[in-house]
Design goal:
The chain is of the alpha/beta class. It contains eleven helices and six strands.
Length: 285
């Protein structure tokens, strides 16, 4: 045992890399489930969606790209499932030019699973450039900002858009934000002016900057990064995923947890080996 612990002082780094690779690969092939708690900010976001009534319509700003997709797509999927399950209508738009090819297939897939009708139960208005100016325009006049949806239908002719001209007409705005423009700009540009209820799912690096918005009441809920998406999945799917589906964030967070445990184990064993080697050296002297 002593020799094994001392070995960690001079361990070949290739074994370390192999161990890390296995700690990532094995839980993907043979899923494991680590228990984790739900943060109060994620719970508040879930409760805000639960408070919606059947027939309500929410505005979703899906502002992410391929680089942030692993963190935010799981939330987007679970959130759409949650909204459609409650028979809530969904109006989706984006301020990011890379988002439409990612957003549309997911939106159509989940809407079809819930037997929702395009234009009546859900719609994708498309991409709008302009950053903060686009957000101000969304706050003032959505049909003017998006004269047609992504399929070319005039916005004023869509059944789902009847009675919804400004952002304040929606009981909830959900910002799925990978950065600029995103949640921060929605809060700074129109939240206070129109007293909007905004919930946010953001990347892990942005979450600390948005926590003050939540504490100040400018956000009604916040899910940060992969952990936030996994916690939201846990609330939306308390009995596990529906047949044929995977909980992407939950699976990923379990892989990360196992990888972290592996690294912590190496650090502990390496330190034990260091102190033992020093003691052996002192005794030999």
């Amino acid at each position: 045992m002593l020799k094994l612990l001392l070995y960690f002082q001079h361990m070949d780094r290739r074994w370390i890399f192999l161990g890390m690779g296995l700690s990532i690969l094995l839980p993907l092939l043979f899923p494991v489930n680590f228990s984790f708690r739900v943060d109060e900010r994620v719970q508040a976001l879930y409760d805000s969606v639960e408070a919606l009534q059947p027939g309500d319509t929410v505005l979703v700003s899906a502002d992410f790209d391929p680089a942030s997709r692993p963190e935010l797509e799981p939330f987007f999927r679970a959130n759409l499932d949650h909204l459609f399950r409650k028979d809530v209508k969904v109006v989706v738009l984006t301020l990011w030019d890379y988002a439409p090819p990612l957003v549309v297939p997911i939106l159509d897939e989940i809407a079809d699973r819930h037997h929702k009708v395009y234009g009546t139960d859900y719609v994708f208005l498309g991409f709008k450039p302009g950053k903060e100016l686009a957000i101000k325009a969304i706050g003032e006049n959505i049909p003017k900002t998006f004269p047609t949806d992504s399929r070319g239908t005039p916005t004023t002719e869509l059944p789902i858009m009847q009675g919804f001209k400004q952002a304040k007409d929606f009981p909830l705005l959900i910002s799925i934000s990978a950065g600029f423009p995103g949640t921060r700009e929605y809060v700074l540009q129109i939240q206070g002016q129109y007293d909007l209820k905004i919930a946010s799912s953001c990347t892990a690096v942005s979450a600390p900057d948005y926590i003050p918005f939540y504490k100040a009441g400018q956000l009604v809920g916040l899910a940060g990064g992969m952990p936030g998406s996994a916690q939201y999945e846990k609330l939306v799917y308390p009995n596990g995923p529906p047949e044929g589906q995977r909980l992407l964030a939950t699976q990923a967070i379990n892989v990360l947890n196992l990888g972290h445990l592996y690294i912590i184990g190496l650090i502990v064993l390496g330190n034990i080996g260091f102190f033992l080697s020093r003691r052996v050296g002192e005794e030999a002297a």
